[in-house]
Amino acid sequence: MKLAILGVGSVGKTVAQLSEEYGHSVVAMADSKNAIVNPTGVDVGVALEQK
Question: Cα separation of 42 and 35, whole Å?
C-alpha cells in the first residue's frame, strides 16, 4: 500500500513510522512548511530528522 502523510505532527509522525514498520510505502509527506514526494518511497527516518 502506498500512503501520503499530510501533517507531520505527533499523529502523522507515528502513522508514518508504523506504516513503514508494517511494510507500507510512504510516498509523500507534507506539513505547513515543507513537502517531499518520491514515487518509490520516502525514507521516513531521514525525512523526520530533517523536520
Answer: 11
CA distances from 36 to 16, 19, 40, 50 (A): 13, 17, 12, 11
Kindly state the average pLDDT of the residues 3-23. 96
Which residues lie across from 26 on neighbouring strands? 3
What's the number of domains the chain is made of? Answer: 1
- DSSP secondary-structure letter at 33? S
CA end-to-end span of the chain, whole Å? 24
Q: 43 is written with which cell numbers?
A: 525514507
Quote the domain boundaries for residue 16: 2-50
Please tell me the distance from the alpha carbon of residue 23 to that of residue 33, in angstroms, as a whole number: 27
Grade residue 13 by pLDDT with cuts at 50, 70 and 90: very high
